[in-house]
Amino acid sequence: MKSITPCVGLVLGLLSFDSTAADIAAKIQLQQVQRVGALEHDAQGTPLWRYAFQPAVRPTVVLSPANGTWNWRGQKTLQLQVQNAMPWAVTVQVDIEGAARQHLHTVVGLPAGPAQRLVIPLHASSSRAFGMQVGPPMPFQDHGRTVFVATKVEGEMDLAQVHAIRLSIPQPQAVQQLLLGTVETAEDDSQVQDAYRDIVDRWGQFTREQWPEKIDSDAALRSAHAQEDRTLQAQSAARSGLDTYGGWQNVPLTRTGWFHTQQANGRWWLVTPEGHAFFSLGVNAVIFSDTRTYVQGREYMFVDLPPDQPPWSAFYGVSDSRDAERGASAGIGANYGRWFDFYGANLYRTDGAGWLAAWRKRTLDRLQAWGFNTIGNWSDAALGRAHRVAYTLSIDVDGAFGNVSSGYDYWGRMPDPFDPRFAQAVERSVAKATASPRNDPWLLGYFVDNELEWAGQGAQGRWGLAIGTLHGEARSAAKQAFIAMLKKQYGAPSKLAVAWGITLDDWSALDAVNFPAPEPNEAHPAIAQDYSTWLRIYADRYFSLVAAALHRHDPHHLFLGGRFAVRTPEAVASCARYCDVLSFNVYADLPQHGVDLDAMHKLGKPVLITEFHFGSGDRGPFGTGVVSAENEAQRGEAYARFVQAAARDPAIVGTHWFDYVDQPVTGRILDGENSHIGLVGVTDIPFAGFVDAVRKTNLGVKP
């Protein structure tokens, strides 16, 4: 290690150092920070000085070289001995500055407690590189020492020219005290990997924490399920006042023999085949095979991983989830090779060779006992075919057709609906998906595609698809359709040039790849008008093709839309024209904070919330979902508020929770997501307190 030690004559005592290491002289500057008290020591005897960070915009301790720059070439980590002296967690920012404005940046939340070693990788790094979107909680115990690894470091740095280290607390409202000791660089980065070592036990659970549903033996696993079976039997009494499909018999509406929509009594309704009002309470991803996680190349993360031989070989497989066009996969390491399914293995441990049939029965028993009446997207098809609960199906339009970038591309680029091959793909995909269920009255309807990238990012994101279309190659069918629209509207390129405030001598200039399409601005309102027109034409082309194919192949069932995430007013209006239901994936505390429901009321179509969730960090997986709660109890409270608010709105006809099972601790193979957002854990044991709150809420929804 190389220790950084303060220069004589400046504010001494900030840092102690290992006298056996090569020292790197530093000068110290305090900005709205004061050193207080006498020298202290941690449990290992390391000297520490106490510093008071004053209420200010950014009180900072700055270390800089006494002479010239530091040369850290060959060093892997920066390590600081630090202690949070407050009774609460304190946010600390560390910036390492280099030449030409290069820098590395990390933010850590130091918990209250004893001194710990803060380890910062000297390169851009994140938990994504280890195959998961959120890294393990910090600190952790390493051979009796408390270590806090910064799991996300941003920026870049020439380590041969390091100019300063800055430790700051952003905008403290009161004095915050930290104790600071040694600062060293190290050629060894083993502690970074140690942060991820042995974090998953043989059942797929996080090893370093405890919670009520955590098990420590196969016998405990089976006992927990046996106890739950008795609870389900007690809850399985049929609810009175409901028809075969779960509709309210006291709200009679039009009977068609199929699920449909109807506006009556001042609101929209889904209507059961028997003609009764129905509010869809659903769960997404009710499936036994969506919990696979890669083990290849990171075997060190797993304790007692089952051998790849019978019976466990049934839960091993090989995949490759790398996709250069999918933003969700950006920076994800460990994204190919051998995987293991802990959830499936736990089902086998519980029920033996008949685990799949047992899981299906138990799952349906649960859904009905917990007040759910719909099986949501990406679920096991056999559950719907059991005809105990209504179900939905998803159709992915798959084929070799053109695409367009909206600039977001989280799940990939947008399909080009003007490419003739797209219409052919729609026909094939719809015909295949509808062949079996078209005569099944238990089918609520079809979603087509999911979270398409109708918009880009940032303030001008609404226009991303229009700009992306003009950026495309000349052979792009969408681009040629857009150019044809502009030619028809303006006639001459000079008129378009004036309207848009650009130089355009010939229409052929638009064919250029990455044509510099202008962003809308106040001086040239025609840009936004033309882009808006194009976005509506684009959406109409997509939705009309899909709707026509669905109506040809299955005239009975609902077109439930495309599960909007990012969206534009043009796309939503088009969906309202061609779809039976507008579906939105809403990640907010309330539906009204995620969707402009006043606008939806004007469009005159019912709204289905097809994804929402609340996660917390106290049941194993490291992520807390898109919308987090403080703890498990607050997840239930948040669920109740959301569903009750949805049921009160006259346009909303249902809510679908995402998802059924917690995501793997080490990340799912699709994109490394690893959040605690499930109704059940990786052991298939329900989270009792949360499920109780969900059941009470669901059973309390009334017409």
The CATH architecture term of the largest domain is: Alpha-Beta Barrel
Low-confidence stretches: 5-23
Given the C-alpha coordinates, what overall shape results?
Answer: globular
Q: Could you give me the name of the CATH homologous superfamily of the largest domain?
A: Glycosidases
Number of strands: 31
The helical percent reads: 10-25%
CATH top-level class of the largest domain: Alpha Beta
CATH topology of the largest domain: TIM Barrel
Count of discrete domains: 4
Question: Structural class per helix/strand content?
Answer: alpha/beta
State the end-to-end distance: 69 Å
What proportion strand?
15-25%
Largest sheet: 14 strands, mixed
| CA-based gyration radius | 29 Å
Task: Give average pLDDT, whole number.
Answer: 94
- Enumerate how many helices there are, as a single number: 14
Which keywords apply here?
14-stranded mixed β-sheet, 24% strand, TIM Barrel, single chain, 4 domains, 31 strands, globular, 14 helices, alpha/beta
Give a verbal description of the structure.
The protein is of the alpha/beta class and 703 residues long. The chain folds into four domains: 2-194, Jelly Rolls (Sandwich), CATH 2.60.120.430; 218-237 and 279-377 and 563-700, Alpha-Beta Barrel (TIM Barrel), CATH 3.20.20.80; 245-278, no CATH class; 403-553, no CATH class. 25% of the residues lie in helices and 24% in strands. The chain contains 14 helices and 31 strands. Strands 1, 2, 3, 4, 5, 6, 7, 8, 9, 10, 11, 12, 13 and 14 form a 14-stranded mixed β-sheet that branches. It has an eight-stranded parallel β-sheet with strand order 28-27-24-23-19-31-30-29. Strand 3 and strand 4 (47-53) form a beta hairpin. The radius of gyration is 29 Å and the shape is globular. Mean pLDDT is 94; it is low at 5-23.
